[in-house]
C-alpha cells in the first residue's frame, strides 16, 4: 500500500519529492527522496537539513504552503540553490502531532503547484502518515523472536531456544518486520527498540 502511495506522489512531483514519516527524536522512522542525485548530494554535503526553511516550517507547524510562501527566513539561500538543480517550485506539507510529525516536500521545475494539486498532495501525505503509523504493540511471539535474534542467535539456535521450528521463527520475524515497516530483521529490531516494544 505504501509503495502505491509513493508512486502516486512521484506522479504529482515531476521534479521529485522528499518524505519524512513520523519524525521522532529528531529522526523519521522512514524517509524517501526522489530529488535528483546532484541536489541530494549537495544538500547532504552542505548539512542543509539543519537550516532548511521547508524542514523548519514542517516541524514547527502543520498544513501546506508553497515554497515561495514559507514565512521562515532563508539566510543560506537554500531555496535559490534548489532552483538551480531543477527544484524551482514546490510545496511543503506537514501533518501529525509534534511527537510524530510527517513532513513532505514536492517539487516541479515548470510552474507553481495549483490549489487543487496541493489539496490532492495533502490528502496523499495524510494517507501515507496514517498507513505508516508505528504499532503500539507486538505479540509476545513476535517480541520473543526479535529478542532471540537481537541477542545474536542464528535462526536454528533461536528456534531451538523458543521451542519452535525454524520456519515458525521466520514467520514471526516476518510479521514483526511487516508491522514495523522494516525491510530487514536488524531494522525491525532497531525500530522495536526505538518504540520501546522490546
Structural overview:
By secondary structure, the protein is of the alpha+beta class. Helices cover 48% and strands 17% of the residues. The chain has a five-stranded antiparallel beta sheet with strand order 2-1-5-4-3, sandwiched between helices. Helix 6 crosses helix 8 (166-179), helix 6 (140-150) packs across helix 9 and helix 7 crosses helix 8. The relative contact order is 0.14.
Question: Quick gist of this model?
Answer:
It contains 9 helices and 5 strands, in the order H-E-E-H-H-E-H-E-E-H-H-H-H-H.
Distance between the termini: 26 Å
How much is the average pLDDT? 92
Task: Tell me the helix content.
Answer: 40-55%
As an assembly, this protein is: single chain
Structural class: alpha+beta
What proportion strand? 15-25%
Uncertain stretches: none
* Record field, number of beta strands: 5
Main sheet summary: 5 strands, antiparallel
Q: Compute the gyration radius: what is it?
A: 20 Å
Taken from the alpha-carbon principal axes, the silhouette is elongated
Q: Please report the number of helical segments.
A: 9
Q: Which series of helices and strands comes N to C?
A: HEEHHEHEEHHHHH
Query: Spatial order of the strands in the main sheet?
Result: 2-1-5-4-3
Amino acid at each position: 500500500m505504501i509503495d502505491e502511495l509513493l508512486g502516486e506522489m512521484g506522479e504529482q512531483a515531476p521534479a521529485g519529492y522528499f518524505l519524512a514519516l513520523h519524525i521522532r527524536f529528531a529522526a523519521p522512522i522512514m524517509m524517501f527522496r526522489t530529488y535528483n542525485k546532484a541536489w541530494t548530494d549537495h544538500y547532504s554535503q552542505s548539512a542543509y537539513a539543519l537550516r532548511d526553511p521547508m524542514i523548519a516550517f514542517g516541524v514547527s507547524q502543520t498544513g501546506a504552503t508553497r515554497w515561495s510562501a514559507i514565512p521562515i527566513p532563508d539566510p543560506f539561500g537554500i531555496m535559490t540553490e534548489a532552483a538551480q538543480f531543477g527544484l524551482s517550485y514546490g510545496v511543503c506539507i506537514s501533518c501529525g502531532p509534534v511527537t510524530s510529525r510527517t513532513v513532505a516536500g514536492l517539487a516541479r521545475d515548470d510552474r507553481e503547484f495549483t490549489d487543487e494539486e496541493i489539496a490532492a498532495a495533502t490528502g496523499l501525505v495524510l494517507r501515507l502518515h496514517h498507513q505508516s503509523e508505528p504499532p503500539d504493540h507486538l505479540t509476545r511471539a513476535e517480541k520473543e523472536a526479535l529478542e532471540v535474534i537481537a541477542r545474536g542467535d542464528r535462526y536454528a539456535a533461536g528456534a531451538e531456544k523458543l521451542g519452535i521450528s525454524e520456519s515458525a521463527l521466520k514467520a514471526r520475524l516476518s510479521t514483526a518486520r511487516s508491522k514495523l515497516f522494516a525491510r530487514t530483521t536488524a531494522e525491525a529490531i532497531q525500530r522495536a527498540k526505538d518504540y520501546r516494544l522490546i
